[in-house]
Amino acid sequence: MKKLRLIFNLMLIAMILNSGSSHAVETGFLDRVVTVNGVTYQYQVYIPLGYSKKNPWPIALFLHGSGERGEDGLAQTQVGIAAAIRNDRKRFPMIVVMPQARGNTRWSGAIAEQALKALDQSIAEFNGDPERVYLTGLSMGGQGVWLMASNTPGKFAAIAPVCGFIKIDGDDDVIDPAQDVALAAQYPQTVEKDPFVAVARLIGTTPVWIFHGADDDVVPVVQARRLAAAMRELGGDIRYSEYAGVNHGAWDRAYAEPELISWMLSHRNVSHVRK
């Protein structure tokens, strides 16, 4: 009897341990925080189906637009790549980091710093593959993609800006004029004689897939066209998708592109800086 009880107890312990390990790996959208200069920011990380920390995973940083700014740490998970993930998780075998910008800011200064720190934290926590790090974003986040990638050449294996821009004259999306001053200080390429060429030169041969709506009345499509032309002129690795009849919300079409994720994952980090 004692022997049977011992066997039963051992089997019970094994079942408990196995049950615990099966629930140890969380997937889906997870809450995280990052601190920069004493300020704490909330962000979200998407962990894909089938995730295991045993192997390194591709990882993307997603920058939202102006409409998702705030401090709730959630609004940025309702649009763009996050919405596409909710529609079909199987299409996204990658970790996705989703920071949030504060109100009346852009992806510059501490806001850009906390986004990059959230990315680095996620790489460390979830075994992100440093050779397969990607950057994408929409509208204000599309601007962030161009500027962040041009300031960190070689960090991202590929970038995908959606309805992005460098700078728009008369842009009233940020009320505080000090933000423009700070943006120019951090990204001097934006105030060069030809900022499109300046940005393209810094990005070098990093693979870029640009998306834009032809009828965009918020961010003029000329921004995307000039960036694509500058990239091509300098020998960049460029794909360009312009959607006829589409206004500013080109991100639904962009993140639904069947080839987008496989295109991203086909690239690995190399040195992209043009001398």
- N- to C-terminal separation? 79 Å
How many structural domains are formed by the residues? Answer: 1
What is the number of E strands? 8
Number of helices: 9
CATH architecture: 3-Layer(aba) Sandwich
Shape: globular
Q: What is the mean pLDDT?
A: 90
Helical content class:
25-40%
Radius of gyration over all CA atoms, rounded: 21 Å
CATH hierarchy, class: Alpha Beta
Query: Major β-sheet, in short?
Result: 8 strands, mixed
Q: What is the CATH topology classification name?
A: Rossmann fold
- Strand order in the sheet with the most strands: 1-2-4-3-5-6-7-8
**Strand content range:** 15-25%
Structural class: alpha/beta
CATH superfamily: Alpha/Beta hydrolase fold, catalytic domain
| Uncertain residue ranges | 12-22
The helix/strand order is HEEEHEHEHEHHEHEHH
